[in-house]
Predict the 3D structure of the following.
Amino acid sequence: MRIMRLLVCVLPLLLALPARGQLSAEEVIRRNSQGQAAAATAQVLAAKSQWKEAEAKLQEAERQCGTEAPTQPCRLLLTYSMAWVAQQQGDTDRARTYYQRVLKEAPSNGAALNNLALLEVAAGHGTTAEALWTRAIDGDPQHAGQWALQLGEYYSRNARYSDALRQYQVAANRLPDAETPRRRIVESYVRMPDGALNELATQAFAWEPLFPSTTRIAYELLVKRGFAEPSSDQILLRWISLISEHDRVTEATLAIVPEGWKTGPVGELRSYLKDPTAPGFQWGWWRQSPARISGTLELASATGKQLLRETRDATRTASCWESALNWVSTPDMLMDAHNSDAPNTGLSSFLDLTQNLASLYYHYPSLDPTGRKLDRIVRSLFESKGMYISRGDWEATQNYHTTLALIYADRGIWNPKSDTFYAAGAIFQLRAALDDANRRFHDPQQKFFQPLPELKEKLAEGYVQTNQSQRAAAQYLSAAAAYLDVDALDAAQKTLSKARELGSSPETTRQLTNILDTRQKLLRGTPVEVSPEKTPWLFQPAGPIDQEFLKRQTFKISVDSAISRAGDTESAQAQAIKAYQFATQQQVPLVGAGDLVRWRRLESQLRANTNTPDVRRHAPAFSEAKPSGKSLQLTIPGHSRAAQVELDPQLSKKVMLSSAPQQ
Amino acid sequence: MWSPVRGISVRASRSAAGRCLLRAAFVCLPILIGSLAVAQGLQSKTDVQVTFRVATQRYTDHFSADEVRRIEQAVQQALVDALNRQVTFLSFTRDDQPSRLAVVLKYSDFAGTGAGARRDTIFRIEVSILGQVVTSNEDWLYKGWTQFYDVLSTPEIAATEIGLAFAKLPIDHLVGKGLSHIPLSPTAHLVWRKATQDNVGRVAAVVIPIPASQLCMDDGSRLALSSQFSGDFGQQPVETVVVPQGEFRPADPSLLPQDVGHLFGIPSRASPDDQPWAVLDSAAEDKVSVKGIFVREYKPIDTGCSPVIQPSNSGLTGGGQ
């Protein structure tokens, strides 16, 4: 924005040049650049306390800047630098004069207003400082969060905590990724012993995913103060869950709880922590809602893992987890814990516990010599799974089916044994897990694409093991396509070979082979022109190769090709523009780190060729939340839901407006 | 944050031999500034070598030795960059240094494994100083067993994917379980205040000879001062908690010009931190020697380390802030 504003100011002046005796555009650029270099040098000298040298450098550069209108940016920067150097030396009067000079020509420059405000505070002119920061917040909206934070600091130092809190709230709203303003909000509440804490409680819940450290401080403040509002139960619950997730809950953790606050639930926690392996431990308060049960499962899961790590005592660990699983006696106990807007952490803990306990039995057969304990676990999984199926919670059922599939597959139970339930086999569970994933992709609320090549290949393996070669061949093709989605070309090749050996459909096999060959050529640096004539296999959806898969492959091939043509600028640019337009118009979901790398390279190539600065270079590569601007969906391992890659609006506008040059 | 030292008068002592009485603006109590640390000059942040190694069979089976090496190098760089961005009280590098943070991608031991071959993958961290391991930990989870599309492809993609885990480092964990063992500074200046009634010195502040603006340490951080004093039974170590306060800016900057702008902290005299301080306070000033300052808890400022905006960030350069 600043650059744009400067350009708007300077451009007309540049265009009006050079008239008689006036500076040429090149000369203006040269002088402004010289000014920047001098300011940078002065900053370095000042850091070494070489004040005189710094000032001399700035004065000399100012003379070279000249007094012509187009060199105003140069003069402004140097004046600002002189103010800053004076401020560093504690020379308030000189610094003030220089800053005021800057503000005369750039009245809404937030940095100058801020620094001047700091000077005024030091000089005891608090009201003036307050007005300057307020002016900065209003006049420099792009950095308003930073100036609001500074005004908040000023209020805080003057014990005006309510005013400080208001400014910190502004800062937090304007700086959504910053933790500091949120920490300040908590500190403000700490300093207001009588302040109402309702608002803090609400905010803390919202901060938890992004700022766990500050959230924990907030929860602990609420606990210490004996927060008694209706959400206090939730505070205790989230506090314990948050610590379980990132640290370890011990009896010492509970030392901050004031006497008389939540005596029932806290007392139960203390009893549990005394011996987490005690069989038959029963919760009272913690059993009264699905969310609370989830909290106890998270606690038990973390405690058991810690126990195993520290003592290597599998028997005690099994006892801890068995006891915890017994708390979920009926399938609906976890049900309402699942808020559809957030991942079901309670269910994850339950399944995590189940899987870990199954694994423990597998590695220590003496813990379950007859296999009855594992049978009981499996039965409990089946029972609770049904409830999620009836609710259509496909994220939950996918987790269940995957857990069961792995338990069966690792024991070689592909089909149900003759005396068991029809679903008691890995093949049924794998198919169900893949069906769930497919439902999530086609659910308009989620549209979450998951390639899942390993599960697909495992299912193919199951078909082979049970002599269903035709199904196995088709499933290997499906796995090959998924491997292409995740850029695992070697694995795609291997699964294609297996499909071929089993007599897979020649058309589909050929089409996938063509795509694989093209992508392997690209890996070797051979560019490809994507068109119905040159790459027909990318334009013919048929059978298991659907339009969505072809879109994803077209994106990968187009970008890889544009990058491989980097030496041939015009043609590379044409292909890059086409790839970008294709991805954004078709909303192609990005899959894994491979596509993230592609997207970054594509943007970088387009930026270089369109002279677009990278304003998002410090922004996170992706975000969990849906950004306000346009974005592409990203599927990455480790995330149970789709992430978003935000588009750079400036670049996007340029690319979408440009038509790809003829090749 | 920058919290000027105000409301005090100070007596500065450069050495046991030479002391001068100095008065600052708001004046109240006499303070003795003991230059107990060895070095007086500006010190930079401690350099820490970062290494990264892949030790998971899944990776070593899939990639050749050369490819694994390339992944390790790329991830090492990504980790160095992420640490330098997010943990600003140390300086991280790939080069050899006496202090080292070794991160290993490995399977967790049995805990957290899934059935069969699929297992939790973790980052093991190990801190060593001069070749001696001082701490190690395996609590940083990279991926749980429930991940089913983390298929390995090219070394570049694998390295990028691992690097994504560093977008938001688990700072509390990394500092608490690893980096808190690396000295922030081997030296510190103790500022002694003389109590009026019994004329006994008491530490009023601790100045760390590194600019606060480089350390970016916010309220809520905690330092540990490791020192030693000559007691009745020989050298006795004592560790005390220090609460960082931001830039050292005495009311009269000419008092200790070489320390102005450095990070300073005050003793945490809240129970139970006050007990070790009572031990230190009881020692004579000239019998205490600083062995190092460590960061025990780190709360970074992520909105800019100094409230005064430098010219390069003024928005007047054409480069934005």
Q: What stands out?
A: Chain B is about 20% helix and 35% strand. Chain B has a mean pLDDT of 78. The CA atoms of residues 122 and 139 of chain B lie 7 Å apart. Chain B touches chain A through 62 residues (CB under 8 Å).
